[in-house]
Amino acid sequence: MKIIEARSINKYFYAPDRFHALKDISFSVEKGEFVSIMGKSGCGKSTLLYILSTMDTDYEGDLLMEEQLVTGLSHEQLSKIRNEHIGFVFQFHYLLPEFSVLENVMLPALKLGRKTKEEIEHDAMTKLRLLDIDSQATKLASRISGGQKQRVAIARALINNPSIIMGDEPTGNLDSKNASIVFDIFRELSDEEDLSLLIVTHDEDFANKTDRIIEMEDGRIISHKRE
Ligand SMILES: Nc1ncnc2c1ncn2[C@@H]1O[C@H](COP(=O)(O)OP(=O)(O)OP(=O)(O)O)[C@@H](O)[C@H]1O
């Protein structure tokens, strides 16, 4: 099944001048597939991820999630889809420093309001165990290392059991040892949990180990390299 699909997406910016930022972008990510997006600075990677994650609705073309058209839905509907289907991991973890590790992971599920606090706490501990960071649960998020913070950010991205994880340089701020730990976690999530991953990276070693590399140049996809 296609978890996400872009059909002929074009994006223009109008300030200061008209600028064609994404040119006829078409591709899809299958269930359980681990895909990386590479390309020089300014080629449009973040702009594309912003559209695919349904945050930016100002584009031409169609976006489908789990084979349903999402282009044209209201902001409320999109926000629901985002919360239920997409987990985000960024270069900077954006954890709330004054909250505990456990509370940070619980937050997106509390926001969704589907389960009791006890159930959410149980789920959050399960995710923290999966990321092998449950021993840090009661610590303040500001009091753990950079690599640990990124693992907590991944646990948080997983809390609502999304079908896809999208990442904008999630290992960009980590040393090589921690970057490799985070990569291995992504690989395991793809192989064992059948989770789809779409990760923007500048790290060629990282990209070479994913299932497919989407290479961008000047707003276009110029190749799909399958490993
Ligand atoms: N809000 C905006 N208004 C005008 N132009 C923009 C805006 N946002 C991005 N751009 C332009 O669109 C192009 C793509 O930007 P984008 O941030 O997607 O690149 P990127 O590939 O993610 O780069 P990087 O690797 O440096 O993060 C760039 O030329 C950028 O200057």
TrEMBL record:
Pfam families: ABC_tran. InterPro entries: AAA+_ATPase, ABC_transporter-like_ATP-bd, ABC_transporter-like_CS, MacB-like_ATP-bd, P-loop_NTPase. Keywords: ATP-binding, Nucleotide-binding, Translocase, Transport. This is ABC transporter ATP-binding protein. Residues 4-227 form the ABC transporter domain. The lineage of its organism: Bacteria, Pseudomonadati, Bacteroidota, Flavobacteriia, Flavobacteriales. GO terms for molecular function: ATP binding. It comes from the Bacteria. SUPFAM superfamilies: P-loop containing nucleoside triphosphate hydrolases. Belongs to the ABC transporter superfamily.
